[in-house]
Design brief:
Layout (H helix, E strand, L loop, with lengths): L7 E3 L4 E5 L4 E6 L2 E8 L4 E8 L12 H21 L7 E7 L4 H20 L3 E8 L4 E6 L4 E4 L1
Parallel strand pairs: 1-3, 6-7
Antiparallel strand pairs: 2-5, 3-8, 4-5, 4-6, 8-9
């Protein structure tokens, strides 16, 4: 039985990739979140890989600059995806995250995730799943044409 191999696209931290072919987007999450956006009818999608950057003595305080930068990158990702597939009418998102071990830093990350969810909702996207965990770094594989997300 023949096996099909798909082009793999590595998505670096604080970057996004948009694909309109049957590719697999790959990222390693280390104190980071991934926003996987797709439209199964149009068979295209995007992956945004955002690091959780905690620089203060009080990790629960995430700076306005950090939040603004992350939302700007998310907005650019969504706009690039909409340009690539103007006929998409059913954009959906899946969120995956790797949390730091520090409980205070986890609270800051939870705030960022909440903000991302609200932004996606305001953009007209339904978040269909969320996979958030601490522990060892996580490998993410996302195939937008199928809406398939695998975490290892």
């Amino acid at each position: 039985m023949p096996t099909t191999t798909h082009r793999e696209v590595l998505v670096a931290p604080d970057r996004f990739e948009v694909v309109s072919d049957d590719a697999v987007l790959v990222a390693e999450l280390r104190s980071a979140t991934a926003v996987c956006i797709y439209d199964a009818v149009e068979e295209a999608g995007a992956l945004l890989h955002l690091r959780f950057i905690i620089r203060s003595q009080k990790p629960a305080d995430v700076t306005d600059t950090t939040l603004a930068t992350e939302l700007l990158l998310l907005d650019r990702c969504i706009e690039s995806l909409r340009e690539a597939m103007p006929n998409a009418r059913n954009l959906q998102a899946k969120i995956a995250a790797h949390l730091p071990e520090n409980p205070e830093a986890q609270r800051a990350c939870d705030s960022v995730l909440t903000l991302v969810r609200h932004f996606l909702d305001d953009s007209g996207m339904k978040v269909v799943s969320s996979d958030v965990a601490a522990g060892a770094p996580r490998e993410l594989r996302f195939r937008p044409t199928m809406g398939w997300l695998q975490m290892r």
